[in-house]
Specification:
Blueprint (H helix, E strand, L loop, with lengths): L1 E6 L15 E4 L13 E6 L11 H15 L4 E4 L1 H9 L4 E3 L5 E9 L10 E8 L1 E3 L5 E6 L7 E4 L3 E4 L7 H10 L13 H6 L5 H14 L1
Parallel strand pairs: 1-2, 1-3, 3-4, 4-11
Antiparallel strand pairs: 5-8, 6-7, 6-9, 9-10, 10-11
């Protein structure tokens, strides 16, 4: 049994999730040695610039693993692309957000009275153009004006986040440097400089780790 993090590109790193001491499988390096679902204690699926329907053999294998882990009622956390993959595995549609790309720090608002450890508002880093429908039997956790489904929880064991709470100052710098072209035309109108100079809210780390603790318990 072990904890596993699936990383899709070098510039979308685990950040604060590294403290979980999980095995990081770097898919972009050709490391496709995915664990068996029965051996998974926690599965974390990070973001990436690819889409859920892109033609990568390893994406098919990832989806199969995600589905098998969920079927075993084991904890799964998906971030950005990871959340979209989970949503698709659960039967929801994934498609371009009609309001455009969300890039930069912006607030989201809680949509349920449950889960008292989650604050009513969070300011988080967005870096996505696709969104998804809420999977059947999932509970919407957060929304924003630009994107209705920002976060969900499914069967108390699976959480999908469209946004990035794992971000540190170092990983933010790496993301902006590697993917700066993606900033152009974002719905918030933020510049590269504004994103880099933004202060990462200190509570994000605590809230993200509480989410992980919740689905593991």
């Amino acid at each position: 049994m072990g904890k596993f993090i699936l990383q899709h590109v070098p510039f979308e790193k685990p950040g604060i999730l590294e403290q979980l001491n999980a095995k990081i499988i770097k898919m972009y390096e050709g490391d496709h040695s995915l664990p068996k679902a029965a051996d998974v204690e926690l599965l974390i699926v990070l973001g990436g610039p690819m889409g859920v329907n892109d033609n990568y053999d390893w994406l098919i294998a990832e989806k199969e693993l995600i589905g098998e882990v969920i079927a075993l009622h084991k904890p799964v956390l998906g971030i950005c692309l990871g959340a979209q993959l989970i949503a698709q595995v659960l039967g929801a549609d994934v498609y371009p957000n009609e309001n455009g790309k969300e890039v930069g720090f912006k607030s989201i608002e809680k949509q349920t009275n449950a889960y008292s450890f989650l604050p009513t508002e969070l300011k988080v880093l967005h870096w996505h153009g696709d969104t998804f429908d809420l999977p059947d039997k999932a509970i919407r956790l957060y929304s924003s004006d630009a994107c209705h489904n920002q976060a969900f929880i499914y069967q108390e064991k699976v959480i999908g986040l469209q946004f990035h709470m794992e971000t540190t100052a170092a990983t933010l710098k790496g993301l902006v440097e590697a993917d700066s072209e993606y900033i152009d035309g974002n719905v918030f109108g933020y510049s590269e400089e504004e994103i880099l100079n933004a202060q990462i809210p200190a509570q994000n780390e605590q809230v993200l780790l509480k989410m992980v603790d919740y689905i593991i318990k």
